[in-house]
């Protein structure tokens, strides 16, 4: 069968709503789009643990410490599941986990803008759990029906755990919202700090050619803007109900257009942050990741050797 | 590539209860079966309970082709193998003023739900 016929047959499968497995034939373009998406998703889970991990030693109570530690562990676990899916896609291209992680250290793969930012107060830890995870959950839940079956299976497990993260984040901010004047102030400042990053998180308004191809292949179903609107629907009323202010004087729901109008985030600034790892915390966190990856290499190698010697 | 230092892929199967079969939950990378078992617990059982775990090197698993639906094709109507193939029993029993008996009813009678919400015994026909 020639390539065109194979491609046409593949598209028929996609259009019938069939799910694709790692061992099925797939167009190179499909493989590369998926790999780019899942690789980025996987390393974002790992880098996403860093802003919160900074709060493990400083959590205000033992219960909070255990809970945030559990969350950090979940994010690392999600990273492992996603990298596993990425590895199977990357195998025909001669890449394994080492290479996928090297890409992160060398700046060849991006991770979400929000994880380049500072989390200076406990309220930031709360807002990350509440709003950053909230945004991430909308993104991930939208992917549950993706055409790539191994990704769909992993997302199902991840989303189940995210439901704990949602409650965890809400509980921290509800406690702060009911706290002292100083605590409420701290919460407001954290919301102010994160708002613009959260809008950027969903990506550009226009549907880029790559995004359109992902929609054609049913890798994803919704556009960036649809997901951002969903986020605003869910979270704007909740933020306001706590008596907090959203730092955007132009934010309003337009009844005629049936959508939220908002001030655009600084696309250029955040674009540079994710492209060149130029955020306030990018270098420091990648440095920690590099340290863990390189300083523990001898352990990984020793374990492989020990098993080989045992097998002899 | 002669001496790959990479970990091996293991598929993970979890048995949640003694009376359940192992169920495939995903895969992981590990340098040995021992570490694979520990990693499996950390990656897949942070919340759920289980009584047993299997890890199997991926290369040891044999599978049917994924994109060949034909392998599972059913050329014949298999109603005769199914409960639903015998729905006329209910109608036939009516002649004898009885009703069809189903497995669920037997199981329920032998394993009544705990006290409190136990259904009242069905009044026997006389």
Give the topology:
The complex is a heterodimer of chains A (312) and B (126).
Chain A: H1 3-15, H2 28-53, H3 62-90, H4 97-105, H5 122-142, H6 149-177, H7 181-201, H8 209-216, H9 224-241, E1 252-254, E2 259-261, H10 267-276, H11 282-295, H12 297-311
Antiparallel strand pairs in A: 1-2
Helix pairs in contact in A: 2-3, 3-6, 5-6, 5-7, 5-9
Chain B: E1 8-15, E2 23-30, H1 33-44, E3 52-57, H2 88-94, H3 103-110
Antiparallel strand pairs in B: 1-2, 1-3
Descriptive notes:
The complex is a heterodimer of chains A (312) and B (126). Chain A is 68% helix and 2% strand. With 312 residues, chain A is an all-alpha fold. Chain A has one domain: Ferritin, core subunit, four-helix bundle (Ferritin), CATH 1.20.1260.10. Chain A has a two-stranded antiparallel ribbon. In chain A, strand 1 (252-254) and strand 2 (259-261) form a beta hairpin. The radius of gyration of chain A is 21 Å and the shape is globular. The model of chain A has no long low-confidence stretch (mean pLDDT 95). Chain B has 126 residues and is an alpha+beta fold. Among the domains of chain B are: 8-60, Phenylacetic acid degradation B (Ubiquitin-like (UB roll)), CATH 3.10.20; 76-110, no CATH class. Chain B is 21% helix and 17% strand. Chain B has 3 helices and 3 strands, in the order ββαβαα. A 3-stranded antiparallel sheet of chain B has the order 2-1-3, with helices on one face. The mean pLDDT of chain B is 87. Chains A and B meet through helix 3, helix 6 and helix 12 of A and strand 2 and helix 1 of B. Chain B: InterPro entries: PaaB, PaaB_sf. Chain B: Pfam families: PaaB. Chain B: This is Ring-1,2-phenylacetyl-CoA epoxidase subunit PaaB. Chain A: This is Ring-1,2-phenylacetyl-CoA epoxidase subunit PaaA. Chain A: GO terms for molecular function: phenylacetyl-CoA 1,2-epoxidase activity.
């Amino acid at each position: 069968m020639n390539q065109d016929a194979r491609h046409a047959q593949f598209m028929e499968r996609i259009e019938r709503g069939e799910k694709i497995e790692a061992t099925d034939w797939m167009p190179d373009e499909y493989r590369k789009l998926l790999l780019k998406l899942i690789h980025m998703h996987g390393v974002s889970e790992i880098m996403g643990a860093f802003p919160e991990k900074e709060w493990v030693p400083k959590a205000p109570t033992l219960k909070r410490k255990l809970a945030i530690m559990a969350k950090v562990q979940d994010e690392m676990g999600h990273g492992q599941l996603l990298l596993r899916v990425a590895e199977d896609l990357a195998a025909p291209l001669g890449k394994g986990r080492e290479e996928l992680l090297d890409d992160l250290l060398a700046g060849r793969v991006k991770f979400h803008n929000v994880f380049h930012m500072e989390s200076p107060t406990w309220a930031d830890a709360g807002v990350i759990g509440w709003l950053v995870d909230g945004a991430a959950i909308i993104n991930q839940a939208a992917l549950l029906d993706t055409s790539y079956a191994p990704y769909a299976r992993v997302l199902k497990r991840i989303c189940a755990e995210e439901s704990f993260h949602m409650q965890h984040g809400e509980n921290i901010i509800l406690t702060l919202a009911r706290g002292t004047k100083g605590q409420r102030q701290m919460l407001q400042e954290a919301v102010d700090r994160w708002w613009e990053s959260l809008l950027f998180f969903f990506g550009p308004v226009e549907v880029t050619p790559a995004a359109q191809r992902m929609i054609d292949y049913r890798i994803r179903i919704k556009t960036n803007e649809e997901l951002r609107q969903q986020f605003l629907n869910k979270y704007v009323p909740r933020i306001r109900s706590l008596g907090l202010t959203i730092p955007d004087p132009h934010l309003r729901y337009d009844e005629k257009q049936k959508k939220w109008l908002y001030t655009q985030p600084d696309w250029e600034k955040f674009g540079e942050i994710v492209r060149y790892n130029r955020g306030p915390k990018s270098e420091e966190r990648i440095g920690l990741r590099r340290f863990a990856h390189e300083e523990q290499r001898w352990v990984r190698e020793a374990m492989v050797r020990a098993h080989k010697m045992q097998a002899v | 590539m002669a001496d790959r230092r990479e970990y091996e892929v293991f598929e993970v199967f979890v048995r949640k209860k003694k009376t359940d079969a192992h169920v495939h939950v995903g895969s992981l990378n590990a340098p040995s079966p021992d570490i694979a078992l520990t990693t499996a617990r950390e990656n897949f059982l942070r919340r759920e309970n289980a009584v047993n775990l299997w890890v199997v090197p991926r290369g040891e698993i044999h599978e049917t082709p994924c994109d060949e639906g034909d392998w599972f094709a059913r050329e014949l109507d298999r109603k005769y193998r199914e409960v639903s193939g015998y729905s006329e029993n209910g109608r036939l029993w009516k002649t004898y003023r009885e009703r069809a008996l189903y497995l669920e009813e037997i199981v329920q009678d032998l394993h009544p739900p705990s006290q409190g919400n136990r259904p009242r015994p069905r009044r026997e026909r006389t």
